[in-house]
Every structure is written in C-alpha cells, then in structure tokens.
Amino acid sequence: MRSISPGLSLPHHDVVVVGGGPAGLQSARFLARSGLSVVLLEEHSSVGLPQHCTGLVSLEGLAKHILVSDEKVVVNKVRGAWFIGPSGVRLLVERSEPVAAVVNRPLLEQLLFDEVARRACALLGMRVQPELLSTGSPVVVATGVGGLPGSRRGYVLPALQFDYLLSRSCGCDHVYVFLGSQYSKGLFAWAVPLSEKVYRVGLASKGNVLLRLELLLKRLYDLTGCAKPERRLAVYGGAVYTGGMVDRLVRGNMILVGDAAGQTKPTTGGGLVYLSIAAKKLAEALSTGEPRLYEVFVKRELGAEMSAQLALRKLLNSLDDKALEKLMLRVKKLGFEELASREGSMDRQAALALKAALSLLLRSPSLALNLFSKLLQSLLVP
C-alpha cells in the first residue's frame, strides 16, 4: 500500500475525494458529471470488499437517488416486513407490489467505480489522512464512521450478519425485523431474504453481538414459522451509525459526506439513499464555487427528516421491552399496519410517525402522554 505524504503533488484537480466506499464513489461520480476535475483516493486495492451492509434499499431510492438502473445489482425484491416484538407481537406492513430491493453491494460499488474511473482520476491502494492534503482545493472526506467527530462515535453500533442456507423454502418477499433487548440494544435484528432458501440474518447492538445473534438463530424458526438455518454461507462484520447528521459538514476545505457526516437513517442505520442525496447536493454546491452551500442544501433536504428520525430512535431506545410490547399492541389495535402499508416510506418516515402519534394522542391519550414524557427525557440525552 502506498502512502501519500504531506504536500505530495496530485494530478490536476478541482476536488479530492478521500474514500472509495459508496459515499466517496457517489461524490466523485456526481462531481465529475457536473464538469469538475476529480481525484479519488482509496486505501484498498479494490472497491466493494469487504462487504458490510445488508444491502436493503427502497426501489424509489435506487431509481431516483442512487441512480443505478442495472438490474444485475438486484439480488431480490421485497414487498413488506414483519415487525416482531419482544414477546411475539407481530405487525405486518406490506404492499401488493415490491417496494425494496436487496442489492449486491460489491457489484453496485464496482459499477459506480467503473463510471468514476472513466470520468475522473481514481487511485487505489493510496492511504491518506485528509488533513494532510494541503492542496487548497476542497477535500471530500468519505472515510466512513471512522471519520465521525469524537462526540458522535457513541452512536456507532458494532454489527454482525450471516448468510444462511435454510432447510426449506421460506418465501422471499418479506423481511423480518426483531425488536427487543434480547436481540439488540440500540437498534434491532433482521432476517432479509436473498432468495427463498437463503437469508441474511444479523443485528447491530451496543454489546454481545455474537451471543445475541446466536440466540436469534436458535429462535429463528419459531419466530418466523419457516426459516430454519441449515448451513452458514458467509459472515459479514461492520458498524451502524444512528446518531443523526453532524452539525458542521464543511470544516475549512474539508467536506464530510456519508457515514463521516452522519448521513444515515437514525431509525435503521441505512445510508445508501441519504449519502446519494448528499453527494448530488455537494456537486450542486461545488459547481457554483460555493462549498458552504453544500451544508445549506443538504440540511434543507434532509435536516428535518433526520431530526424527526433521531427523536424517534431516542424514544425507542428509552423503552424497555414491556413498554415496547405495549406500544406495539396499541398501535396494532389503532390500525397502524393499514396506515403504514398505505402511506409508509422507507426513506421519508417522519410524516408517518406524526400521523401515528396524532392517532395515538386522540385514541389513547394516556399512553401518548407517557411516550411524550419519555421522548422529552430522551432528548435531554446528548
């Protein structure tokens, strides 16, 4: 691996992008499309590996924001999700047609890299610290959760997932989300179908990730009614960030994008759509010659949504299993499944959360006020 020393001359450029993950690739891609001269630096000798992400994205986000139309990246499409509570309460949210895709992340990133390599200067196997670049040009920091400010790193959860061959078919058009402290503290566990007989099972949590995942695998058949793990095919490690967007996206000539900017959904940790939106806004700002407009553009587009999701995440984190189960039972009785199936969006969750909260306030005011009190308490925690 080559290292870049301070002051080392780079090829002519308008912008340097540090990091060849999805945030760096999308940034370089959209910047180059806008006519800017771009140098991309990635420390690994290839992109896309090792794989970390589950790869579940909305079809709308894939088409509208990620802007990859190659069907080869789509491993499977799903039309709904089962949410399973700590004691077995189930909520079903679904549509008649697919709403999300499981994508092949390594292939997706390779396709993005191929375009970047055609339009820009892409240097692989180059280790660099963004602060060592003294070119004076904008430096896009897309180095993942390691680039987060120290104050935000407490929101980074270790994650682990396995691909498993099942003993028999379990269907492939619904994902499973498992809630409760036995499976996760700080997020949830999941089982995502890659096909009828292969599922990606994982979780992110503040502690005991492997033990929690082993417990989930033991209970998976009972929880789903069909998914019985037979043989492990692959193992993926990683990290999930749920702490919201960082306050300052532009710091001198350094510009934060993707995980380094906290541009993931606080409710789920997913980031492909939001980082793609941010990368497009970055290209808009830099093409005008005003880097600081990037922060204005991104926060106008995503700020309110992410703030609402962060409040919801803090509320959910504040509930013990008993309170969570009670909430799930109540919203089920209030028709949340029908509301979410009709109006829910994977990428824009605030509007649905507000409607559900108003319904809860009108029809179960005591529970709503109790949750509001917990929300206020949770918001006092940094």
TrEMBL record:
Transmembrane segments: none
Domain FAD-binding: 14-46
GO molecular function: FAD binding
The protein's name: NAD(P)/FAD-dependent oxidoreductase
Organism: Thermofilum pendens
